[in-house]
Amino acid sequence: MNGERRNAGVPRIERRRSARWLTNETLTWHVSRGRRARAGRIVERSLDGFALLVTPKDEPAEGTRFSPSDPEDCVRFGFCSAVVTRTESVGESAKLVFAEIEA
Question: What is the DSSP letter of 11?
Answer without folding.
Answer: P
